[in-house]
Amino acid sequence: MLKSSNKTDVNTTELVITIDAEAFEAAVENEYQRQKKNIQIKGFRKGKVPRKLAEREFGEGAFYEGAINSLLGPELDKAIAETGIELVDRPSVEVTSVDKATGVELKAVCVTKPVIEIADYKGIKAAKKVSEITDEDVQKQIDIIRKKNARIVSVDDRAAQMDDEVIIDFEGFFGDEAFEGGKGEDHPLKLGSGQFIPGFEDQICGHNIGDEFDVVVTFPEDYQMEDYAGKEATFKTKLKAISYEELPEIDDDLVKDATEFETVDEYKEDIKSKLEDAAVKQADSAFENAVLQSVIDKVDSPIPNCMYEQRIDQLMNSFDRQLQQQGMSLKLYCQYTGMDEASIRDTYRDRAEGEVKLRLALEKIAELEAVEITEEELDNGLGEIAAANQMDVDTVKRFVDVESYKADMKVQKALDLVLESAVVDNSEEESAE
């Protein structure tokens, strides 16, 4: 039973729970019965050792830990329900006293959900500016189709230059010693792509097919392979081929062959229309993000760090699943990038903190606005899940935590309320211009 409940910090509550002697004795007996089939003492058959003899042999508390563990869950659940606190992490439990005559006393330190205060969430002002689509933007899209239809032209009458595609053999040396991973044969390289160490591609320019020459470069100080970082290396290089992309002129014939349009003008008009639609969507998205950032900034209540860590765990698990779908493990990704798991977690920290604050803020807004989910809305939402997964609604209800799903729907309603009430204000943008 709950003996006391004390708030010891902003988001921390300490519960003292007692288990009476009778309940404790029953739990100890149950634990003995559970373990006795494995107990063996000289003079007794395995599984036939009396409890008193087992306690004399192994100590009076031989069955206490299992007994307390069997009682802890139900007793802790009852105490939490009685206090009405909402936990955001597993409680830290300490056994403060154990006695056959008086029972057990436990102390549970509980990290609780923070109380959020938020105001002025309606009518949030943010800028929304739709980018103007220029002829240059249209031309960039046209160049994509030209590139797809480009032909490769081999060169044998001039030296290599930037933007050429070359084929090279190379081998890297530190002094007179070749180093691992520094050799390649018939390696294709687009000059100017930045694929190689800075300075490497520049030194190929000016050489002709058949030339053999040294390329001297210094590995960057932050190079992922620490043994190579900051070292000067010489790559013995041979230039074997040079080619370049020849882009076709854009005309009606190319448009007919490569698109569903008949003329260049029709194609340009379609490109501009799609770019304008994309610009509107991008402006809408930026506006919504600015509004939501404003909501996040309004949250200044202390939030337990464990909530941020839990969200980072979720993001890391999602990233790990994405890597697995691409046939790569997180460990292998770390090897390729020179990062470790801790540094990857750090890249998610700001995002996790923002998402936790936003969720808490929207939950509070839903509470302030008395947002409710009707049975019809719930059934419609579950119906969409059922249809997407080719199930019936009753089956979905067995797999989905309906109360959590309703909470998500309330948060979505609160989000819609904030965004629908937001106001476009470009005054600062115009002043800056």
Q: Strand content of the residues, in percent? A: 15-25%
Helix content: 40-55%
Taken from the alpha-carbon principal axes, the silhouette is: extended
Overall mean pLDDT? 92
| Annotation field: number of helices | 14
Tally the beta strands. Answer: 11
Rg, Cα atoms, Å? 34 Å
Characterize the main sheet.
5 strands, antiparallel
Strand/helix succession = EEHHHEEEHEEEHEEHHHHHHHHEH
Unreliable parts: none
First-to-last CA distance: 67 Å
Based on secondary structure, the structural category is alpha+beta
Explain briefly what this protein structure is.
The chain is α+β, with helices and mostly antiparallel strands and 433 residues long. The chain has 14 helices and eleven strands. Strands 6, 7, 8, 9 and 10 form a five-stranded antiparallel beta sheet that branches. A four-stranded antiparallel beta sheet has the order 1-2-4-3, with helices on one face.
Architecture overview:
The chain has helices spanning 21-35, 51-58, 64-83, 135-148, 200-204, 252-258, 264-297, 305-325, 330-337, 341-368, 375-388, 393-399, 402-421, 427-432; strands at 2-9, 12-19, 92-99, 103-111, 125-126, 151-155, 165-174, 177-190, 212-218, 232-246, 423-424. The mean pLDDT is 92. The chain is extended and about 100 Å long. With 433 residues, the chain is of the alpha+beta class. The strands form three sheets. Strands 6, 7, 8, 9 and 10 form a five-stranded antiparallel beta sheet that branches. It has a four-stranded antiparallel beta sheet with strand order 1-2-4-3, covered by helices on one side. Strands 5-11 form a two-stranded parallel sheet. α1 crosses α3 (64-83), α7 crosses α10 (341-368) and α11 packs across α12.
